[in-house]
Amino acid sequence: MRELSTFNGSIAAVRKMFPYKQLTPLVINRSQAIIAFPTSSPNDYSCAWIFASHVHTSHTLASVDPTSMLIHFKDGTFIPVKLSYYSLEKKLARAAVIRNYCLESSLVFA
């Protein structure tokens, strides 16, 4: 609540500003551009939220199989997820677009 937003409020705001109607990235902290994205539907018990800025993109390129990826993090840890390479790439790109928007808007309002 410190950022004056809730989970539902943040998702609604992102959906209003961007064309991401499903698996919408979540803005945790707008001023610091902290963005997380879901690996599956947030209603799915196995859904994990990944903080995009922690993903080591140069290492998260090889898939385990066509439907699974290992997401490598900057601290050297990794987790397996049921995502295709294309899906993970798309989620990271969406998070980057929102992150850039947050960073640009913080410059305007600073």
First-last Cα distance: 21 Å
* CA-atom Rg in angstroms: 14 Å
Order of helices and strands: HEEEEEEH
Number of helices: 2
Low-pLDDT parts are none
Task: Give me a quick take on this structure.
This protein is of the alpha+beta class. It is 33% helix and 22% strand.
Descriptive overview:
With 110 residues, the chain is an alpha+beta fold. The protein is 33% helix and 22% strand. It has 2 helices and 6 strands. It has helices spanning 7-17, 85-109; strands spanning 26-29, 34-38, 49-51, 63-65, 68-72, 78-81. The strands form 2 sheets. A 3-stranded antiparallel β-sheet has the order 1-2-3. Strands 4-5-6 form a 3-stranded antiparallel β-sheet, with no helix packed on it. The chain is globular, with a radius of gyration of 14 Å. The two termini are 21 Å apart.
Draw up the topology in text.
Blueprint: H1 7-17, E1 26-29, E2 34-38, E3 49-51, E4 63-65, E5 68-72, E6 78-81, H2 85-109
Antiparallel strand pairs: 1-2, 2-3, 4-5, 5-6
Comma- or semicolon-separated keywords:
single chain, 110 residues, three-stranded antiparallel beta sheet, 2 helices, 6 strands
